[in-house]
Amino acid sequence: MVSGAMEPENYKRKERIALVVIVVLASLAVASLLVAFSYYCYISNKVSKRSKNRKRVDYEDKGSDFANIQVATEKGLQVFTFKQLHSATGGFGKSNVIGHGGFGLVYRGVLQDGRKVAVKLMDQAGKQGEEEFKVEVELLSRLHSPYLLALLGYCSDNNRKLLVYDFMANGGLQEHLYPISGSNAVSSELDWETRLRIALEAAKGLEYLHEHVSPPVIHRDFKSSNILLDRNYHAKVSDFGLAKLGSDKAGGHVSTRVLGTQGYVAPEYALTGHLTTKSDVYSYGVVLLELLTGRVPVDMKRAPGEAVLVSWALPRLTDREKVLQIMDPALEGQYSMKEVIQVAAIAAMCVQPEADYRPLMADVVQSLVPLVKHHRPTSKVGSCSSFHATRSPKA
């Protein structure tokens, strides 16, 4: 009789346990559904906002690394009217032309407040010029270093695109190493100390782009004409129209069409289109050779075997006797053998055919610092880590 009474009681207990389990499972299922629904709403809202933001920008080139130009006041840039810049440059008169880039003429100008500026007037035609304009505004509004040319503002008036920079009284390095006949540049022979200081400051500009920005910025058109000199011959790196964001991965590359200037383009980039910070290091090495030799990177008028600067100089850079044969005659008596050997060794490492054998720009800076007697104190440079958010979808 007792066992018969126990059976219904056990049955009821099992029933209660099953009910509790069912309730718990149902509660968990409802909670999971609520979490999933909340997450769905969050994602939908985020996507909706992103779509609205994309609709606000008029940026047709999906292949660019940089987002469209945002409100200028957010970036600390001044927006000029075409009339202001027309007046500042004397109506863009020929007498005020101080340079000619791949995408337009550069004019000397004076603003109403008395500031001297350089104004780049972009060529009317060409999608490439339009892209350069966008890249320079977006990039230079974010980068801040005493070794980069500062962008003060811009003008975007219908099809007329203009960029306004700090004025650099002594123009480009190239003009001083070998002045172009018929140009407005004033010829000057740069002494050894000045050349070393220019080499260091240009290296610091590239070091900032490669080491202080995430992801790194690859200049892609580093050359002597894009190193500008102020009234005291201090150097700043300029012209970022072809700049590209590099890979986040150590030793990684980005694939892109080959752009740059003959004689400065790294061999692996020219062959494969694989671009890395080491491509800039190669270009820097070519500039260092220009400072040592006073020769242009490619000169077909030279004797056989001497037309390409890197090919001619590289075998001589590590030979104590031969290195003196490549030195610019204008520098005779200004340098010590020890200094020449050290700078030649740096140049030889930078122009190595294999990218992996080239040094980092930080190493180049460290090697040059002891050789430069009077250089600007190292300034604090702002870092830029927000480029991840500025990339547009790749085509």
From TrEMBL:
<dbReference type="GO" id="GO:0004674">
    <property type="term" value="F:protein serine/threonine kinase activity"/>
</dbReference>
<dbReference type="InterPro" id="IPR000719">
    <property type="entry name" value="Prot_kinase_dom"/>
</dbReference>
<dbReference type="InterPro" id="IPR011009">
    <property type="entry name" value="Kinase-like_dom_sf"/>
</dbReference>
<dbReference type="GO" id="GO:0005524">
    <property type="term" value="F:ATP binding"/>
</dbReference>
<keyword id="KW-0472">Membrane</keyword>
<keyword id="KW-0547">Nucleotide-binding</keyword>
<feature type="binding site">
    <location>
        <position position="120"/>
    </location>
    <ligand>
        <name>ATP</name>
    </ligand>
</feature>
<feature type="domain" description="Protein kinase">
    <location>
        <begin position="92"/>
        <end position="372"/>
    </location>
</feature>
<keyword id="KW-1133">Transmembrane helix</keyword>
<dbReference type="InterPro" id="IPR017441">
    <property type="entry name" value="Protein_kinase_ATP_BS"/>
</dbReference>
<keyword id="KW-0812">Transmembrane</keyword>
<comment type="similarity">
    <text>Belongs to the protein kinase superfamily.</text>
</comment>
<dbReference type="Pfam" id="PF07714">
    <property type="entry name" value="PK_Tyr_Ser-Thr"/>
</dbReference>
<dbReference type="InterPro" id="IPR008271">
    <property type="entry name" value="Ser/Thr_kinase_AS"/>
</dbReference>
<dbReference type="InterPro" id="IPR001245">
    <property type="entry name" value="Ser-Thr/Tyr_kinase_cat_dom"/>
</dbReference>
<keyword id="KW-0418">Kinase</keyword>
<keyword id="KW-0723">Serine/threonine-protein kinase</keyword>
<keyword id="KW-0067">ATP-binding</keyword>
<protein>
    <recommendedName>
        <fullName>Protein kinase domain-containing protein</fullName>
    </recommendedName>
</protein>
<feature type="transmembrane region" description="Helical">
    <location>
        <begin position="17"/>
        <end position="42"/>
    </location>
</feature>
<keyword id="KW-0808">Transferase</keyword>
